[in-house]
Specification:
CATH superfamily of the largest domain: Glucose Permease (Domain IIA)
CATH topology of the largest domain: Glucose Permease (Domain IIA)
CATH architecture of the largest domain: Distorted Sandwich
Number of strands: 22
CATH class of the largest domain: Mainly Beta
Number of helices: 9
Structural class: alpha+beta
Length: 425
């Protein structure tokens, strides 16, 4: 390669042509750098950025404009759940708890007072300076739990097969004595299907007024110290009465907390001895209609002598006008013996509070064994005195394992301590 520095042109004639006297080929010096690559890179990036910007602008221009937000079908306004229905061209859906509210775009932020009003579910009274659409769904945001409400009046219940005073009292959450004091005393002995039973709203005495007693006298009779307990009771319409007021004869009043006479609970007992006892003996039944009742059972009568039905027990409670037997405690399962020879006239569950019970008939006498954990005899079976008939338990109306033992002459309870002294210590 020729070094340009060694090329010489002849002197230039100012009068001659200005073109060079020889042709000079453009050459690139070895020390000169290549075309700068970074400039090419920057140019390429700029070109790509411009293309992307153009594409984004085109997409924005061809996209559809925002449309109104359509409410779901379940939230669509109806005549029953829409309030002040006003529609705006462009809207935003705002949901506060279970109350959806539609407000126009650009509306001011909802203030605390408006928010509180929405939460209190009183949108029809709002005044926020801008129109609102307030719409409820079809579901209540509140849950109400149904509860048994106390009654304020006495109702009449018709007894059905299998009902007893105890089961009815348990169903209506009142004491059996309240039912006994508020109805004919006949139902204490025999409650028949179809009997109409007064069911007071609470424990006390429901009665029909007869005679000329004042409210104060009625209160004293049923052991209520303050007659205003009766007058002010929501169960009576006596707001204008005084203690000296005489309620109208034939009217009904309820004495809250009143107490009548002591009730000796005794299932119905029948003893038929009208036949030839030498040939057919006695026909006896106990608590007809109860699950454990055997119906009418013939027994030969008599007996071989009385024995202690629970020698391995401890005396805990005696006989009285309100307790028709004697209780003797023992460990669950302790053997219970027949106090005399006789026929089984009851074997099973008693609705009178005895739980699992056995009744033996000994001629005109009966023996009852209550609260048993087990029963080892069956209806109509003849049982010798001293035989194991069951085990001590705590079934029925019982607070602990014990034997409730009764001796009856017909329907009348007798004191077992007079017949079997060893049972009572």
């Amino acid at each position: 390669m020729v070094d340009p520095r060694n090329i010489h042109e002849p002197p230039i004639d100012p009068l001659a042509d200005t073109n060079p006297s020889i042709s000079i080929r453009k050459v690139q010096l070895d020390s000169a750098p290549e075309t700068a690559s970074w400039r090419r890179t920057v140019g390429l990036i700029s070109l790509i950025g411009a293309a992307l910007l153009t594409l984004a602008t085109t997409v924005l221009l061809i996209m559809p404009h925002p449309q109104n937000i359509a409410l779901p079908t379940s939230l669509a306004p109806t005549p029953n759940n829409a309030i002040g229905a006003t529609v705006f061209p462009t809207e935003t859906l705002v949901v506060v708890t279970s109350v959806p509210v539609v407000v126009p775009v650009g509306a001011p932020t909802i203030g605390p007072d408006v928010m509180q009003a929405l939460l209190q579910a009183t949108p029809q009274n709002l005044d926020v300076g801008n129109p609102l659409i307030v719409q409820r769904d079809n579901f209540s945001p509140f849950t109400f739990i149904k509860q048994d409400r106390p009654r304020s009046e006495t109702i009449q219940y018709t007894a059905t097969t299998g009902d007893t005073i105890y089961t009815i009292a348990e169903r209506f959450k009142i004491a059996p004595e309240t039912i006994a004091w508020s109805n004919s005393r006949r139902i204490i002995e025999v409650l028949r299907p179809g009997d109409v039973v007064n069911i007071p709203p609470a424990d006390g005495v429901y009665l029909q007024v007869v005679g000329s007693k004042t409210i104060k006298e009625w209160a004293n009779q049923y052991q209520v110290n303050d007659p205003y307990t009766i007058i002010d009771s929501d169960y009576n319409d006596l707001s204008s009465a005084t203690p000296d007021t005489v309620p109208a004869s034939g009217s009904f009043i309820f004495i809250p907390g009143g107490k009548g006479e002591d009730i000796s609970w005794s299932p119905g007992v029948t003893v038929d001895n009208s036949g030839d006892k030498a040939k057919q003996g006695f026909v006896t039944s106990f608590a007809p209609g109860d699950p454990g009742s055997c119906g009418n059972i013939q027994n030969p009568g008599g007996g071989s002598g009385w024995i202690n039905p629970l020698p391995n027990g401890t005396y805990v409670r005696g006989f009285s006008s309100v307790h028709s037997g004697v209780d003797r405690a023992a460990s669950p399962g302790t053997a219970v013996l027949a106090a005399n020879s006789g026929a089984v006239i009851f074997s099973g569950w008693s609705s009178w509070g005895y739980g699992n019970a056995i009744v033996l008939a000994h001629g005109p006498f009966l023996t009852l064994y209550g609260h048993l954990s087990s029963i080892a005899v069956r209806c109509g079976q003849l049982i010798p005195a001293g035989s194991v008939i069951g085990g001590v338990g705590s079934t029925g109306n019982s607070t602990g394992p014990h034997l409730h033992f009764e001796i009856r002459y017909g329907q009348t309870p007798q004191d077992p301590c007079a017949t079997i002294p060893s049972y009572c210590y």
